[in-house]
Task: inverse folding
C-alpha cells in the first residue's frame, strides 16, 4: 500500500527558531514529491522535488529530496508567526498507466509563538 | 497562474438532502480533476478522480452511489453528496493540474474548498 508519513505531527516553536519537517514515503511508480502549506482553506504550493540532492529554496524555506532513503525535509529558518500552518507533504505516483495521483501525508501542524 | 474555483465555499443542509459542489478550472482545461476530503486537523484524503467524458475512479472505501461525480466539460466537475448525513460533514476540496504549462508532473492547483455541515 502506498503511504506517505510526516513527522512530527505537531510542533510549537518561538519566532526566530529554525524548524525541520520530515516526510518519508513508500510508494510504487514515484514521480515527484511536493510540499504544500495549508492555512485556513486550500493548500498552497511550496516546492516540487524530482531529483535527489538538489535543494530547492524560496526565501526562508528550503527543501531537499533523498530518493535512495525515500524521504524529504522542509526547513524553515527564522520562523515568523505567519509561518503557522499545516505543512503537507505529497507524493505523485503514476497509476492506471497514464494518470498521476497525489498521495498526501498526515501533515505537520506548526505553531509559531511570538 | 492556473486558478481553480470551487463553489459554494460553505453550505449547511438538513440530513437526507443532497448537496452539489462545483469545481471549475478558470483559465485552463482539465481532463482530470481530483476530489479530496479533509477532517479537522487531518490530511487530505483522495476520494475520487474525475475524468472528463467518462466515469470517475473512486478510491477504496468511497461509496460511488453516495458521492456522485460528473465531469461534463473540460472546465467543470461536480461532486454531489446524496442523502447527506451528519457524518458527511467535512471539508471537500477539488484540484486540477494545468497540463498545458507543466505537463503531467506539474503541481496540483486547489480550489478554496467547501465546508459542508449536515444537521
Result:
Amino acid at each position: 500500500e502506498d503511504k506517505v508519513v510526516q513527522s512530527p505531527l505537531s510542533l510549537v516553536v518561538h519566532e526566530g527558531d529554525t524548524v525541520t519537517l520530515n516526510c518519508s514515503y513508500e510508494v510504487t511508480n514515484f514521480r515527484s514529491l511536493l510540499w504544500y502549506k495549508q492555512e485556513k482553506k486550500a493548500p498552497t504550493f511550496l516546492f516540487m522535488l524530482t531529483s535527489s540532492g538538489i535543494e530547492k529554496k524560496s526565501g526562508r524555506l528550503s527543501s531537499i529530496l533523498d530518493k535512495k532513503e525515500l524521504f524529504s525535509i522542509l526547513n524553515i529558518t527564522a520562523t515568523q508567526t505567519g509561518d503557522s500552518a499545516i505543512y503537507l507533504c505529497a507524493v505523485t505516483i503514476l497509476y492506471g498507466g497514464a494518470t498521476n495521483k497525489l498521495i498526501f501525508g498526515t501533515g505537520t501542524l506548526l505553531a509559531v509563538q511570538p | 497562474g492556473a486558478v481553480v474555483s470551487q463553489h459554494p465555499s460553505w453550505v449547511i443542509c438538513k440530513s437526507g438532502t443532497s448537496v452539489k459542489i462545483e469545481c471549475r478550472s478558470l483559465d485552463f482545461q482539465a481532463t482530470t480533476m481530483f476530489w479530496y476530503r479533509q477532517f479537522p486537523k487531518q490530511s487530505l484524503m483522495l476520494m475520487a478522480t474525475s475524468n472528463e467524458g467518462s466515469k470517475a475512479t473512486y478510491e477504496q472505501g468511497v461509496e460511488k452511489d453516495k458521492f456522485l461525480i460528473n465531469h461534463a466539460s473540460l472546465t467543470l466537475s461536480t461532486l454531489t453528496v446524496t442523502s447527506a448525513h451528519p457524518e458527511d460533514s467535512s471539508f471537500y476540496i477539488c484540484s486540477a493540474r494545468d497540463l498545458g504549462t507543466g505537463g503531467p508532473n506539474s503541481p496540483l492547483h486547489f480550489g478554496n474548498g467547501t465546508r459542508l455541515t449536515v444537521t
Summary: Chain A has a mean pLDDT of 92. Chain A touches chain B through 24 residues (CB under 8 Å). The first strand of chain A starts at residue 3 and ends at 7.
